[in-house]
Amino acid sequence: MKDGTVGNGKRRHADRVHDPMATNKVRADEGDDVLLSEMAYVRIENMIVTGALRPNSMISENELSKELGCGRAPVREALQRLRSIGFVEVLPRRGALVTPVDVRTQLELLEVRRPLEELMVRSAARRASAEERVQMKLLADQLDEAVRTEDKRRYFDINRRTHLIEAEAANNRVLMNSIAVIHSLSRRFWYALITDTKSFSEAAVWHMRVLRAIADGNAEEAAFSARKLIDFLEAVTRATIEDPVAIGF
To answer: Chunked in runs of 10, what are the mean pLDDT values of the chain (249 residues)?
Structure first.
């Protein structure tokens, strides 16, 4: 069972992978306080990643609770989690400050991400359910369409769902929790960085190859494509550090 240990038992994908991004509001009738906090976390994280909450801006629990349609407690817990991964700095009696994007930490992040990413996709290729494999093929097709239509926002939404389903399919709770933080930090950086079609289309090629390899149960191809993806991201990061003005940092 998926209870924090590796196993073969699978629940329906729709039950296991609830997508809090499906609504702009955090509704109290959807679950208990833990679920409300999780949904608030995902919504606020996405607002920071996409720049709706800009770096160095101040945000308040009251404003966020009104926007999300929930109480202050879930927002407060979400902000504490975001503080722990460096997205915000909580200032007593003032609110939370959205931290700036730190380009140079991305190389350290990618160094940690590389082995975890390979472990994740290899495990997913072996353990994904039939439904997950179908969903991965659909996501690959959707990525292709987002690139062809130059839809950056849709690309990054699919990218987030790609990370989620790959981590879930790996069927290792420790791995999933560890790589979720890395993916959040990476996604924020890449959303700010990759503005031209060529850059995110190249990344999408490797994402699509990983998804299709996992769907086909080909662990070696999935691992190879994951390595090529990280190679590409590392090259772009190094280029950004050398010429930060070119992309607005």
So the answer is: 43 41 45 76 89 89 88 90 91 87 86 97 98 98 92 87 97 95 87 67 93 98 97 89 56
Q: Where are the beta strands (DSSP E) in 94-193?
A: 95-98
For the domain 105-247, what is the CATH code? 1.20.120.530
Please, how many CA atoms are within 13 Å of residue 228, restricted to the half-sphere of its CB? 15
Contacting residues for 195 by C-beta, under 8 A, at least 6 apart: 152, 247
What are the residue boundaries of the structural domains of the chain, listed by start?
Answer: 13-98, 105-247
Whole-prediction pTM? 0.77
Q: What is the CATH number of domain 13-98?
A: 1.10.10.10
Q: Give the whole-angstrom CA distance, residue 47 versus residue 184.
A: 12
Q: List CB contacts of 80: < 8 A, sequence separation 6 or more.
A: 90
- Same fold flag, 13-98 and 105-247: no
- CA torsion sign, 110 to 127 to 155 to 43? negative
pLDDT score, position 188: 86
Number of Cβ within a 10 Å radius of residue 55: 14
Contacts 24+ apart (CB under 8 A), 53-57: 53/98, 54/98, 55/98, 55/99, 55/100, 55/101, 56/97, 56/98, 56/99, 56/100, 57/97, 57/98
Helix (H, G, I), strand (E, B) or coil at 101: coil
